[in-house]
Amino acid sequence: MTTIADALASARKSQSTTDCSPLDGERLLAHVLGVTRSALYAHPERPLGDREISEFRRLLQRRGKGEPVAYLLGNAGFMDFQLAVNPCVLIPRPETELLVELTLESAPEGKNGPLQVADLGTGSGAIAIALARAKPDWLIRAVDLSPQALALARRNARELGARNISFREASWCESLADSAYDMIVANPPYVAPGAPALHPDCAFEPDMALFAGADGLSAIRQIINQARRCLKAGGLLLLEHGHDQREPTTELLSAAGYRNIKHYRDHAGHDRIICASHL
């Protein structure tokens, strides 16, 4: 007979030779059993059925090969909510929560009527949904080129009650009306092929959400150029970028006529977010 305690002990032993966290086994077993992690320790003597043991071992094997826990569980935390995720979308990162916070803080005050905000490359819908939940009077447009990503984003928005989002399948600003938006926000792909120190999850995430041309700036370059026609006078563009892309992104914004360029660092102290106004 294999109990919860036995299964966790076996998982810790097998994971000791990998880069996996000891918490991974707990999260996976809790997922298989449909309980919380704390419930595992409340009832360590509970016996596991053959199906439960088989499924737990299967997930552990996949995790041992590096597959992200979020994909194995089918969900990931972002801000104060959970999002469904799958290999069609990037797994939300803590750095992107800063992008949401700065968008909320930077919103123009004293405007008549609801703000019009576009989230480009929405993926799982993380940014759009976070903004929609925080500001139910805003009108959010979520854009993505991937129909699979949009389907997942729609599902997440529906399940999280974010009703003030409309979705469009398009590349960056192609579906946006001219001079319509108070703010445009994006966490675009910004990795150059062969760049060192990629997050380990990247090997399993979609290339189109990660890589952006030889210098990692092709998506940022397109957004900066396209967003000019879609932003209202004084509208804001907020972008997440790579830790070493502050200077080239600033130069691109300046050359395109943006002003009041501001930089922000993530919680690890890396340059990560840039904000600029269109005049």
Question: Can you offer a commentary on this structure?
Answer:
The chain has 279 residues and is α/β, with parallel strands linked by helices. Helices cover 39% and strands 20% of the residues. It contains ten helices and nine strands. It has a seven-stranded mixed beta sheet, with helices on both faces. The chain has a two-stranded antiparallel sheet with strand order 1-2. Strand 6, helix 9 (218-230) and strand 7 form a beta-alpha-beta unit. Helix 1 (4-15) packs antiparallel against helix 2 (22-33), helix 2 packs antiparallel against helix 4 (50-64) and helix 6 crosses helix 7. The termini are far apart.
**Lateral arrangement of strands in the main beta sheet:** 5-4-3-6-7-9-8
**What is the end-to-end distance?**
70 Å
Strand residues, percent: 15-25%
What do the pLDDT scores average to? 93
Uncertain stretches of 5 or more adjacent residues = none
Output the helix-strand order.
HHHHHEEHEHEHEEHEHEE
Helices and strands: which structural class?
Answer: alpha/beta
How large is the count of helical segments?
A: 10
Gyration radius (Cα, Å) is: 21 Å
> What proportion of the residues is helical, as a percent range?
25-40%
Descriptors for this entry?
alpha/beta, 9 strands, 279 residues, two-stranded antiparallel ribbon
Walk me through the topology.
Blueprint lengths: L3 H12 L6 H12 L3 H6 L7 H15 L4 H5 L1 E4 L2 E4 L9 H13 L9 E5 L5 H9 L4 E6 L2 H13 L5 E5 L11 E6 L31 H13 E10 L5 H10 L2 E8 L5 E8 L1
Parallel strand pairs: 3-4, 3-6, 4-5, 6-7
Antiparallel strand pairs: 1-2, 7-9, 8-9
